[in-house]
Amino acid sequence: MHTSFRLSVYLLLVVQLFIGCSSDPLPEPDGSQPETPAATPDAYQDKIRTQPYPKADNELYLNPAPLIVPQTMKTGERLQFSLSRTEDFSSSETLVTEPQEWCMYNPHRRLDTGTWFWRFRSTNINGNMPGEWSQAYRFEVKNDTPEFVTPTFKTFLENAPRLHPRIYCFLDDRIEEARNRVASHPEYKELQNRATLALNVDYTTMPDLYSRAEELRQHTTYLYQAYHLTQEKKHVEKLRQLLEALIVAPPADKQLFASNFTASNIAWCLVAAYDLLYDDLSASDRTSAEELMMRVARYYYKVNCGFQENHLFDNHFWQQNMRILFQVALSLYDKPAYSSEVLPMLEYYYELWTARAPASGFNRDGMWHNGTGYFSANILTLAYMPALFSYITRQNFLLHPWYRNAGRSMVYTCPPGSKTNGFGDNSEKGTEPNRLIAAFADYLSCETGDSYAAWYAGECRDLLRRDYELRLYRMCTDQNYNTAFPADAAKMVWYKDAGEVAMHSHPEDTEKDLALSFRSSTFGSGSHTTASQNAFNLLYKGVDVYRSTGYYQNFSDAHNLMSYRHTRAHNTLLVNGIGQPYSTEGYGNVMRAMTGQHISYCLGDASHAYRGISNDPMWIGYFEQAGITQTPENGFGTTPLTKYRRHILMLHPSTVLVYDELEASEAVRWEWLLHSPTEFGIDAVKKTLSTNNSAKGFVAVTQLFGGHVFALSQTNRFAVPPATTGADYPNQWHLTARVDGSFATRFLAVIQVGDTKESVSAIHRDGDTFSVGDWTIEAVLDASKSSKLTVTHRTEPAVFSYGTDNPTLNGTSYPRQYTGSSLLYDEVNGTWQVTEMTDRTPVSTRAISR
């Protein structure tokens, strides 16, 4: 919870109280997650749901919340749900649903504030042999629960298109005008160039057609867009040639289902050609195309139904397969030979999107919880599905909180002209945003008028025009939006659901910007995220100062497991040489965050992150394949860690503080980690770490202080080198500050980044007081004493205070409301105010730990 108070500069207090609270991915097998022990606190996200949602201690993400039953609790062929305001389900308004195949139910209406009860039971396929009702699960709808109500599937079906082409029906109102001016559009030449790539291929002689499914997917997109816009017969006839090549030599199952992307790529080729050519196909070709699409649809409906609503995040499904499977169902739902089979599929995927999209269903932040490096792989689906649903149902799916926050998220996590400052697989690659991200900003600008997205798109105009995935949308849409940077933009954003914080000194100007990102997430470490709880990345002028290291060349080879994904690769901590498991159970949480004009602050708690080895069957299999054992010698195992709380402050514009509180139940070896693309110059006496970026013209100096004597060392070697080496994969520098045999210790790092050595101030220490430039820092480093961190400015009244004492604000003693709180007195939107905050309880998809 936190408490916020507003003060004038004269400290006339007006109290307000708040109680609170890229490359395509590699195929990955999905393993089941073991049942969570009953004694484990419900503070993290299950990979595979083990408990119904929502229940008593869940804080709802949205009103209405979906009702979700773990797949293992469905014992019959169908499920029936009941929702009521009374615990005995006796009220006249109690709802009982028709039996259905899947394990979720969406109310599709606003739920009144107050307590609700729900239960479920299994039935046979006809629903006439129901089992016993489950226990009643209680949840509370609060006044401040964000509301997002979606239309029923009945509404969708009543308005669904009956004519072909239909899969881009949401552009029907714009397509004729776009065709009239297509030749003058700035992307026309590139549209034709890409279509020509496909026109120059003879699909009838292409060897091993199905092994080139990704290439065929791209060609199909080029041709579909070109014909839809230009109506030139050569494009649709080439699509016909591809369709006929596929149906003349239908694939064996081992070809079609070689990977889930293979199947969906081929399905897209089929559905796109079928959609445009429907009225011109022979009866036999039409039937052959339908049957081949149905092979894919049947196979994956059986796999997905019950599973996807209970899986935390199945990457390939949400990136591409969900979208294409829905397009197949939308194309076939009204065909008499298939409608009875396809309609349940269409309904399932519609309900699944409502329950679990756009970002797991448990993320309202607008940022990508599964790693910024894989955000772009999801963008076509993130744009297509709400566009289609909004058009057909006549209700705006972009009103979901995630979409409303997505524009700002892109500005702060993937800045224009900069590397991404986020975490996860692939996040280290590139020197600018992915062109799909720029295209998504343009899409949001056109559809919602979001000011952050509009500025972003304006900054990336050339970049977004190189994207082809959303080209059809852009060429049919007026791009009239205000590209001015939002005047009220803050210097920090806290992504409370995803568990990250982004701080910027100059978010509107990359060449001046010091950017820090911090991660401590209840989503844990797995999938495309890494074992990086309480880690930070620091960039200046759009390039790395300190960053997670290693190279993403393979999802699960030895380098990935030991020197990329492992905690040793991140700017965080090892305990006895051991890091965090690759598991949702290895979780952290951002407990506090606040910002002003002069100071930005956050606190992460990774005390639960060092939870033993990775027990997820998927990772166990990958360790076996790589010949790696999860032993302490390799950096895996249990630790006696009991506290790891990391405070991060950006003292604008160029200084960062990192204050760590560390405790264990027995004496351990603490290893404080920092990584750089360039070698550290180490002063072993002053404990300073200096790096120089001659290309961008800046220096970084970190001075490290500790409660115990520590030894500094660095290496430019990986625990396991990458499989591919050479100039594109240089060694990186890994620094360790080591404390041996201590139950508890503390660290304070003072990081300064400047254009020249002269711009970096000397640090003067007097006991627990440190002076750097205009800032004075008081930090208690003796772990036997109460923690304390206070920051003041020489000329500005800005104050940060963490601890138990009552700080002085603008000459007046301020009575701290809560012992151990964090307190910031700073200027916000032209007004000086004080915010006091205690720990925020994490919101999870299981239950809040008490």
Automatic annotation (TrEMBL):
PROSITE patterns, per database record: PROKAR_LIPOPROTEIN
InterPro entries tied to this protein: Chondroitin_lyas, Hepar_II_III_C, HepII_N, Ig-like_fold
Major subcellular site: other
GO MF terms, alphabetically ordered: lyase activity
Entry GO terms, CC: cell envelope
Domain (Heparinase II/III-like C-terminal): residue spans on this chain: 492-686
Pfam families found in the cross-reference section: DUF4962, Hepar_II_III_C
Source domain of life: Bacteria
Domain Heparinase II N-terminal: start-end pairs: 47-200, 217-478
Subcellular location: Cell envelope
Protein name as it appears in the record: DUF4962 domain-containing protein
